Each structure stands twice: as C-alpha cells, then as structure tokens.
Amino acid sequence: MPPPQTTGIYPSDSITEVAQSLPLDPLGPGAADLLAGDVEYRLHLIIQEAKKFMAHGKRGTLMPEDVEYAMDALNVEPILIPPRPLPLPSFQSIPIPSSSSHQQQIYHLPDEEIDFATYLKQPLPSGVANSSGVKWKAHWLAVEGVQPAIKENPNPTQRSGQPRPQPSSTSLRPQARTQLPQELQLYFTRLTTALVPPSPTGPETEAERHRLAALASLRTDVAVAGILIYVVKWLGESIQKCLMAPTGTIGQLIDAVEALVSNDGVFLEPYVSRYEGSLLALSCLGKQAVRSTVWGKAGENISRIDDLAGRLYTDSGSGKKRNPLIRALIKCLSVIINPKPADTPTPQVNLDEIADAFGPNLANMLNKKLWTANEILRLRREELEAESQHQSGSDANGEREGDGMEVDQS
Fold it and tell me: Is the pLDDT of residue 45 over 80?
C-alpha cells in the first residue's frame, strides 16, 4: 500500500526547481513534498507571529514591518529586503506608427544622465550648508617617529590617562522594545536588575535574595516565553561586555543562562546561536580567571558546563565532534594544564573516571586527548588531597587544644 500523499498550498515543484538550479544531488522520492510542507509550516509560523504585531498596532492590514518584527522575534534572518517605499519608475511612452486605427505604444524607462560639472556647481541644501558636515584636512600623524603636538593629534598622556569604563548593571540593562506590553517591560526590567546586582553580594544580603528569586523565575516561570528573545539578546551582549570586567559578573550571567536552559516551558532551540558565541568567548579569559570560573573548586564547575552542553546540543551523542561548547571547554583547560613533553609516552586513562568526575560529554571528547584527560584528573586529585590534609590538620589541632584544656583543669 503506497504511503498517503501530503498536499499543501506550497507546491513541491518549486522545491524541485530550486534544487535543480543549485549544485546539489538529485532529491530522493518524496523529499520535495517533505521540504514543501516544512516551508509551508514556516510561512504559517511567520504569518501567525506577524498577525500578533498587526493586532498590537491596532490595524487590520498586514504590513511589511509586521513581517520584519515577526522574523526578528523568531530569529529568522531575511536574505532579500526590498526598499520601502518602493520607487515608482517614470515610464515614457513611444508611439509606433501602424496602418490600423488602433495606435500601439511601447513604454520604456529613460536613463537619467547626470552632468557632473553642473551638479557640482549647484548650491548645497540648507541643512547641509549650515552644518559642519564632513571636512577633509591634511595633517602629519608623525614625522620620523615623533608625533607633532597639534590639536588633531591627542596628547599621549591624556589618551593613556583615560580610565577604562567598567561595565555596570545599568549598562547591562537595555530597555525592551515598545512592542511589549507594559507588564512584560516591567518584568524584563526587574529581572535584569536582579540578575546582576549593582554591588557585591553575600549569602545573606537583600540583593542576593533578589538574584536567587530571579534565577528561580528564569528556571520555572512560563512567562519568560513572552520576553525570551530580549532576555537572550541581553545575556549575549552582557557576557561580551563583561569579558574584561571582574569574573564575578560573568559567573552571575552564566547562572542566568543555566537557569534559562533548565526552563522546560520555553522553546529555546532557535535562539542557541544568540548566546553560543558569548559562551565560547570565555576561552579568551586568562589562567587565573579559568581556574576561578571554569575550573572552580576541584573541577566542580566543569560538570555544570558539561550538563549545560548536553542540554544545548542534544544531538551531539552520535557525532562527538559536534559540540562546540565542549571544544571551547577543552581549549580553556589547556591554559591551566602542563603541555605534553616531546619524549613522554601517552598515558593510559580510564575515561569512566572522567565521566563520573566531570560528565559524559567531556569524556567522549577526550577519547583521543588522553594527556589532557590525565592532567585534569591529576589536578583534581591534588586539590582533593590538599583539602583532605587541611581538614585532617584542623581536626588534629582541635584535638590538641581539647587535651591541653583537660590538663589545665586537672
């Protein structure tokens, strides 16, 4: 019995013609129908989202701006954008003599000819003539390696003395677009303000309690879907701004990303590319920053990153090299481990121990990088041994103090 044929509005012949015009392999049987159904579904999705903007604008006609806002909200980048308003060409008619009573005409678009001599002699418009505009003036940047002291060249001491602006929570709170209702705008503002407190937080401060409440809202609240695109943009831009700031701010933003990924009530897959580059940019951090943020205490942060990578890239189990977040994690860890000497043989490492300590995704990626796996296990053992020795020393000191107190009492 042949499979049922799925018919839709979008014709499959268009898919076949596009595939034939591109240097692709011939489509298999039924592939054009499946692709046509997928295209029709995406068109319906964009039109449905555009109708929301049309209803919000209190209009009954769908405008191109509504489609643009819908594509922006769905993270779809258009390839061709027509100019607005569309230019209306001025056609000129050419009569054609004929023997019949009906005279035929041909319309053509005349080419506009510009005389540069006349065009350059024309006076400037009033708005441009009264303003300073763009002016060109030649001056020396340097003469034999020495910069002249003129007003066009800034003083080196003044230029080096300018302090670098540190990103604060105010600069990390862009305003949401006016297409959002007032309630969602207020929710977005309160959420971003609480996620990055303006002052250092402790375990018992009011700002820390607000931050934990905001993380809980990101993790469980379904209302985040209404401002999802704005939260994702804010997280990506904030991580990029804070790469040169104190690492504590980056840690707070990473906690927000982890809470957003843990929310089962939002559809986050189309927006992975928004903050993927920001998360991969953490590989630019220095050695001390990698130890304090990526490694953590005995490598406990690596398991969190491994869990986050498994949630973001659910299809990376079959192809072990398709998880860019784990590749960036290994690149970060190469900063704090010792390089392999040339005459050192490759050690034998139990990858199950890597999976138990750090996570299965990292263990799969370290299948052919046994030196890196051996080094991170060595770092973890050294930190755990140092912590156990410190704990045993503290216990021994406490016992000695207790014995001394008993002797004094006797």
Answer: yes
Rg value, the chain, Cα: 32
Residue 107: phi and psi, rounded to 5, are: -105, 135
Q: How far apart are CA 63 and CA 50, in angstroms?
A: 9
Q: Domains along the chain?
A: 12-19+31-71 (1.10.20.10), 166-265 (no CATH), 285-405 (no CATH)
Span of 98-102, 190-194, 217-221, 287-291 with lowest mean pLDDT = 287-291
Phi, psi of 95 (to 5 degrees): -70, 140
Give the pLDDT confidence of 339-351 residue by residue, as tens digits: 777 777 777 777 7
Closest CA to 249 of 173, 177, 324: 173
Amino acid occupying residue 96: I
- β-strand partners of 92: 108
Distances (CA, A) of 297 to 330, 351, 373: 17, 21, 17
What residues contact 33, with CB distance under 8 A and at least 6 apart? 5, 6, 12
- Are 198 and 211 in contact, with CB atoms under 8 Å apart? no
The answer to whether the pTM exceeds 0.70 is no
- In tens, the pLDDT along 81-98 reads 766 666 666 777 777 776
